[in-house]
Task: structure prediction
Amino acid sequence: DPGAPPAFLGWAEEALEFLRRRLLGEYSVDEFGYDPDLVEHVLAPLLRPLYRHWWRVEARGLEHVPDEGPALVVGNHAGTLPFDALMVTLALFDEHPAHRTLRTLAADLAFTLPVVAPLARKSGNTLACAEDAERLLAAGELVGVFPEGYKGLGKPYRDRYRLQRFGRGGFVGLALRTGVPIVPVAVVGSEEIYPMLANLRRVARLLGVPYFPVTPTFPALGPLGAIPLPSKWVIEFCPPIPTADHGRDAMLDPMVVFDLTDQVRDTIQQTVHRNFVARGGVFA
Result:
């Protein structure tokens, strides 16, 4: 291919320039540790083969995510490992017209694991607390929330595509306090990448993790069991749900919080079911 050498040379030149910037300290991170240079030139390129070729992600409804300004992106969560959050983030980064960065609120565990913790910060995640979330929204950022948490990530395969409880509506209170819209996002495909047949709870307690999965390939195949299955993914961003009209004091009304939480959850559940049925086969 006559175009291959120039393409390789261009990649090599870009890699050398990236290394030069790192060595000379010509890059910046924000107060939360987000490193956009590392994301653009290292982390996103590593994830793109999974997004484009392995899971063949189809992103829909990107026009529902604002081109600028704050919004709360709320999604379902599943798949044993949080690849769904990474794929939602990459869909917005690569395919949204404004190439928006999603700042996901992550659980404490993500910031205690070796290797994972510094990468979590550098890739734009921050601790799932109201203070950090409000500061990000005040700065005009997109903030990602996955209210099912480990209940969703670690649910058994027999419960696939049935959303777990959304907690006490903390994300709705956050949206009401800040007056930002909520953009529900429904992910189909993540449930099949590591089908969890059983959870070894005693092992999980010994390791200090929320669950220890048994899948068709793990732990039977050892490290090979860490390879996710190539399911077909659909990610759909739904029309935004406004909150500013309710007023800040609405966060103190349990019925308003409950109704909005239920509306977001139902929107995601119905969209997940529709796309799951339309997708057909798991590997279609």
The chain has a mean pLDDT of 93. The longest strand covers residues 182-188.
